[in-house]
Automatic annotation (TrEMBL):
<dbReference type="Pfam" id="PF00651">
    <property type="entry name" value="BTB"/>
</dbReference>
<feature type="compositionally biased region" description="Polar residues">
    <location>
        <begin position="1"/>
        <end position="10"/>
    </location>
</feature>
<protein>
    <submittedName>
        <fullName>POZ domain-containing protein</fullName>
    </submittedName>
</protein>
<feature type="region of interest" description="Disordered">
    <location>
        <begin position="391"/>
        <end position="415"/>
    </location>
</feature>
<dbReference type="InterPro" id="IPR011333">
    <property type="entry name" value="SKP1/BTB/POZ_sf"/>
</dbReference>
<feature type="domain" description="BTB">
    <location>
        <begin position="51"/>
        <end position="118"/>
    </location>
</feature>
<feature type="region of interest" description="Disordered">
    <location>
        <begin position="1"/>
        <end position="34"/>
    </location>
</feature>
<feature type="compositionally biased region" description="Basic and acidic residues">
    <location>
        <begin position="13"/>
        <end position="24"/>
    </location>
</feature>
<dbReference type="InterPro" id="IPR000210">
    <property type="entry name" value="BTB/POZ_dom"/>
</dbReference>
Length: 415
């Protein structure tokens, strides 16, 4: 929506005009009613009919309906219900924001979505949105501040910032959904069996964009949201990095004909500037490193590791540490730890008379059991899982959360 249409035509539509095709003042595609509830917001946003509030942002005026703002924004609710000056005069001044961002925020409040591209792209077809990304992706060229600020990723981060500032949870959520979508579709060439040269070029250029966006986020987003955004945007980079370091991972037939030295040299040049950026932001670098390690582990894991077993081990370790901590807090519990060989066996075994308490140990078949950490009798080597001793608390944290947090870095399985 252009500024012009926002600032003019603040008139209640006259129904008689709608049918009068010969009227010189006729509006194209004019309608007197909306077709459904989704269209109501969009139509009101466009026509500004019945608007009862003016938002003034750096000289740009938006005629809006306070109801839409009140219902979704804590800021506007407080501002308009408080009897403050704004409520009496029906004017709210937002001098610190960019008018085009306020227009996007309003678009969201009216329609549940916003357009993060530049306005002229919207008028073209969908292919234009692909072109606009290509326009940002030449890593040789330092982007101007203006180009950076109009990058859709940066726009989304700014909109998140507005959602935070004006207490609009729906907008913040919408921003994250968009970031996830971008991250998910970031490197289509990899999955489309492009040549290694094309891949390197695509990854290195998108990498620049992502780094710029994350850098911007680190300066403008509050924590912990910034970390969630950084994780979201870094994951596709991390996932792509093995292809850069070791293109033979791809096992593509045409790799036989690739000049690897030339490829490596090309990559070194392209990544020099990126390495410089990494050096400037240690938090960012650490985060990227962590996610790359995790992604590599997962790659290897698909071939070599049984993740259920690893998860079991993490959980078992956590339970054992909790149990031992509880015993240290309450030494009387040690009396529950004598060897229970006869009690646990099926009557075949003789009882163990050891007077000493069992101690934590790695199970003899630790790779092959759900409880790799056990209590063991030091005299007869009998092993007993902690949960069989009644020393564990009900619904004790099994430690798998830590593990799942890491898995959670892979956000595209959600929603
Ligand atoms: Zn024993």
């Amino acid at each position: 929506m252009s500024d012009e249409t926002l600032n003019t035509n603040n008139k209640r539509p006259r129904p008689e005009n709608d049918k009068d095709d010969s009227s010189p003042s006729k509006r194209p595609a004019a309608r007197s009613v909306s077709n459904n509830i989704k269209e109501v917001g969009r139509d009101l946003f466009k026509s500004q009919a019945f608007s009862d509030l003016v938002i003034n942002c750096n000289g740009k005026e938006f005629n809006v309906h306070s109801l839409f703002l009140r219902q979704q924004s804590q800021f506007f609710q407080a501002c308009l219900d408080s009897g403050m000056k704004e409520a009496k005069e029906n004017v709210v001044n937002l001098p610190d924001d960019k008018p085009e961002d306020i227009a996007r925020m309003l678009e969201f409040l009216y329609t549940g979505r916003f357009w993060e591209h530049e306005e002229n792209v919207r008028k073209q077809n969908d292919a234009a949105s692909i072109r606009i990304y290509k326009a940002y992706v030449d890593p040789e060229e330092e982007r101007t501040q203006e180009e950076l600020m109009s990058d859709p990723l940066v726009v989304i981060i700014r909109l998140f910032q507005l959602g935070n500032k004006y207490g609009i949870p729906g907008l913040k959520k919408a921003c994250f959904l968009k970031l996830r979508l971008y991250a998910k579709e970031m490197f289509p060439l990899i999955w489309n069996r492009a040549t290694p040269e094309e891949m390197v070029s695509e990854i290195s250029s998108q990498w620049c964009r992502l780094m710029d966006a994350i850098e911007f986020a680190f300066h403008h987003m509050p924590s912990p949201s910034v970390f969630e955004a950084a994780n979201t945007l870094l994951t596709p980079l991390a996932r792509a990095s093995p292809f850069l370091l070791k293109p033979e991972y791809t096992s593509w037939e045409d790799l036989v004909n690739v000049d690897r030295n030339a490829l490596l040299e090309d990559m070194t040049t392209k990544f020099a500037g990126l390495a410089e950026k990494l050096e400037k932001n240690s938090d960012f670098a650490t985060r990227l490193f962590t996610i790359i390690c995790w992604e590599s582990l997962k790659r290897r894991g698909r071939e070599n590791y049984d993740w259920v077993r690893v998860r079991n081990f993490v959980g078992s370790t956590r339970r054992m540490l909790n149990t031992v901590s509880r015993i240290l807090d309450d030494p009387v519990l040690v009396s529950d730890l004598p060897c229970n060989r006869r009690a646990m066996s099926l009557g075949q075994d003789t009882a163990c008379e050891s007077p000493r308490p069992m101690v934590p140990a790695l199970a003899k078949r630790y790779w092959d059991t759900a409880t790799p950490l056990v209590f063991r009798c030091r005299d007869c080597d009998w092993e007993c899982a902690p949960h069989n001793l009644g020393l564990e608390e009900e619904n004790e944290d099994d430690g798998a959360d830590d593990f799942d947090d890491l898995v959670g870095l892979e956000s595209d399985d959600e929603e």
